[in-house]
Amino acid sequence: MKSMRVLLLSLLASAAMAQSPADLEAVVTTDLGVFRFEFAPDKAPKHVQHFIDLARKGFYDGSAFHRVVAYGIIQGGDPLLKDAKTPRKLWGTGGLSQLAGEFSDLKHERGVVSTVSIPGKADSDGAQFFICIAPQPSLDGKFSAFGRVNEGMDVVEKISQSANNADGMVEKPVRIVKVTLEKKKVEPFVTETVEQLKRTVTMKTTVGTIKIQMEPDWAPNHVRNFLKLAASGWLNGTGFHRIVKGFVVQGGMENSRINGVGHPADRWVRPLNGEFRKDVQHVRGVVSMARSDDPNSATTSFFLMLGAAAHLDGQYSAFGRIVEGMEVLDAFEKEEVNGETPKRRLEIIEAVVDPI
After folding, report:
1. Which of 106, 120, 213, 266 has its CA 20 to 30 A from that of 228?
2. Do 74 and 172 fall into the same domain?
3. pLDDT tens per residue across span 63-116
4. Helices H, strands E: what count in the chain?
């Protein structure tokens, strides 16, 4: 039995090794939290493979981020930092000159992960890497970008705020506890057919529970988006920030979470193209997406109709309707407000996609 177990573990390990880099992401655990980044093997295949090989060997475990620019960049991965006695003058000198540069059109935008090299020395890239918090256009085409942070940019920002000296070296290194590789997270409700999108979402709120029937025939991509937000837990803890009695209740803004914390599913939040239908009426109980003046700007914020508003028809993307809990709309209308802002915190306690 023991030999069978060893064989099984060996097979699982081999399967993990055989995974395409595009299907993997790095999980970086630090003193200040965890962030993840995906790889760009189509832009810098050798750098991606180099990082993966090193991570699998535990090369980065115990190293640190030693150089930061507040809200600019963070730099780490020097193996010399594993030894707490390494003199500061040597920080940033280890793990270099291991491979040639791979320059591409991947710009050094927010979240991009790139490789450190020795100034003025060609093909001196190595194990050290840096992450951009703000765009760094002056680095484009000069450094080998090979990935992008897709979760935990708040942690990267926190690292960048570490106390540092005039040379950018931190007073106390931010320890990289470990770097592991995991299968890349898959965005939910991407491949379902329109028929499969005909689901219901149960939403528990401060004032009661409603059940929303999705209407993919009205706005299929908005339905996909809302199901994704519910299935991933993204909506949980967000607030209802606006009540206009007789008109709408609006919620789902990302900045409405207590303490403004991010969410792992932020990676999948993106603007949606409008799906407007004049034959779908915005009447009491209909659920529709909020947006700015740009018709293609809806992301997460939605509104529940408290009354008919024909001027919204064909202008906003209605995607569902309340089929249970209409009395909850009455409860919202009884809430005290300052202008259009509720006097007390009202939130989505939990939103779940109901089983088929």
Report:
1. 106
2. yes
3. 999 999 999 999 999 999 999 999 999 999 999 999 999 999 999 999 999 999
4. 5, 18
Q: What is the pTM of this model?
A: 0.81
Whether residue 331 sits in one domain with residue 251: yes
Q: Which residues pair with 272 in a beta bridge?
A: 298
Each residue's pLDDT tens digit, 100-114: 999 999 999 999 999
Q: What is the mean pLDDT of the chain?
A: 94
The pLDDT assigned to 243 comes to 98
Domains held by the chain: number: 2
Tokens of 200: 């219901």
**Structural domain harbouring 327:** 195-353
3-state secondary structure string across 139-167: HCCCCCEEEEEEECHHHHHHHHCCCECCC
Helices (H), ranges, the chain = 2-18, 45-56, 153-160, 220-231, 327-333
Q: Which of residues 183, 213, 232 is at a domain's end?
A: 183
Q: Which residue has the tokens 């407007």?
A: 276
Residue 1: pLDDT over 60: no
Tokens 């999705």 locate to 214
The CATH number of the domain holding residue 35 is: 2.40.100.10
